[in-house]
Design goal:
By secondary structure, the chain is an alpha/beta fold. It folds into two domains: 9-52, no CATH class; 62-321, Spore Coat Polysaccharide Biosynthesis Protein SpsA, Chain A (Alpha-Beta Complex), CATH 3.90.550. The protein has nine helices and 14 strands. The chain has helices at 49-52, 70-87, 115-118, 120-129, 153-170, 192-198, 229-241, 253-266, 301-304, and strands spanning 9-14, 19-24, 30-35, 62-69, 93-99, 110-114, 138-141, 144-147, 176-180, 184-186, 204-209, 216-223, 271-274, 294-296. The chain has a seven-stranded mixed β-sheet with strand order 6-5-4-9-12-11-13, sandwiched between helices. A three-stranded antiparallel β-sheet has the order 1-2-3, with no helix packed on it. A two-stranded antiparallel ribbon has the order 7-8. A hairpin with a 6-residue loop joins strand 11 (204-209) and strand 12. Helix 4 (120-129) packs antiparallel against helix 5 (153-170), helix 5 (153-170) packs antiparallel against helix 7 and helix 7 crosses helix 8. The radius of gyration is 21 Å and the shape is globular.
């Protein structure tokens, strides 16, 4: 599509999950760019809402959940809280399941639960499997036992039991419960409309970061109004509390989440909304729409305080990435 008389024109067509942009240069050639982004220019003109957002829906309520221990708080959790309080909408609260740590930050939006008191099922799980090498990431090899995170169920069970408790606690009280890994930083103010737009709705039970392999579960948005949300959570948590995880190919939370999701999709119990890409299996978090506002400091990225430039699969314009 070309408009005569205009040399440089950016036309944006908004779809529910992504934008397609056609840029016309002076030589008349059109270049297509598909990328996740929250807003694009409309020739410098503010268009009426019914034109710019035809899928506009009612505003939703949101709550965010995370967990960490004393070491995690010092290494990354404190930064997660500070940037949350600075950049997230003022009517969104952060729930922290804190394990043996005193949180220094004080704010009405910060809700702290004692990890040990609030999660008795996690305590029972640890007592049952704390001394089991197979549940703690140790697997046999030709050279003896070697450590692999894919079988470290005890380590990742903190997230599973925390999100299960939070979903039951806030079920039908808010619209979306967002699980956010504590090793994330928010680098840009998040508008409420962004959270509304990517939230699961209707028969969508959750929004997650899909990729070529099992999902990246540093962010999962749960639809607390979905009729099967408690069924999902019971199965997710139950895979650990029952010991079923010991029979699975891998036992970390992302793999177990994926298997429960696949079962519910096959049985047509729920649908799931995807924010990632099946074309990548690496750092899908920052290459999704989330990267415009957050960075996930996976692994050794914690020491640097940010992800690496080479982690990006396409050019981002936000100041954080420059």
């Amino acid at each position: 599509m070309r408009v005569p008389g205009i040399a440089n024109l950016s036309l944006a067509i908004r779809f529910p999950e992504k934008f397609t942009v056609w840029k016309h240069s002076e030589n008349g050639k059109a270049k297509r760019s598909d990328r996740p982004t929250e807003s694009l220019p409309y020739c410098g003109v503010r268009l009426p809402m019914f034109l710019t957002n035809p899928w506009r829906r009612e505003e939703l309520s949101h709550i965010v959940v995370t967990t960490f221990n004393e070491k995690g708080y010092r290494e990354y959790g404190k930064k997660c809280i500070e940037t949350f309080l600075a950049c997230w909408p003022k009517d969104v609260s952060l729930v922290v399941y804190a394990e043996d740590v005193e949180i220094e930050e004080k704010d009405r939006r910060l809700l702290i639960f004692d990890h040990c008191k609030a999660l008795p099922r996690l305590r029972d799980f640890r007592e049952a499997h704390g001394d089991n090498p197979q549940a703690n990431g140790w697997i046999p090899s030709r050279n003896g036992l070697v450590r692999d995170f894919r079988w470290d169920a005890v380590r990742f069970s903190n997230k599973v039991f925390a999100v299960a408790d939070a979903v039951r606690r806030y079920h039908n009280m808010v619209d979306q419960l967002i699980w956010l890994d504590a090793d994330t930083v928010t680098h840009r103010a998040i508008p409420k409309s962004f959270l509304d737009r990517i939230a699961p709705r209707g028969n969508q039970l959750a929004t997650y970061l899909n990729r070529r392999i099992y999902p990246e579960c540093g962010w999962v948005g749960y639809n607390l109004r979905h009729p099967a949300i408690l069924t999902f959570i019971d199965r997710f948590e139950g895979a650990y509390s029952s010991g079923y995880f010991l029979t699975m190919k891998e036992s970390h939370d992302s793999f177990v989440f994926w298997k429960v999701l696949q079962q519910m999709e096959r049985d047509k119990e729920a649908r799931f909304r995807r924010l990632g890409s099946r074309l990548t299996k690496t750092h899908v978090f920052i290459n999704s729409v989330l990267g415009g506002y957050l960075d996930h400091l996976k692994g050794d990225r914690k020491a640097a305080g940010r992800s690496r430039r080479r982690d990006l699969k396409w050019h981002r314009r936000e100041p954080w990435w420059q």
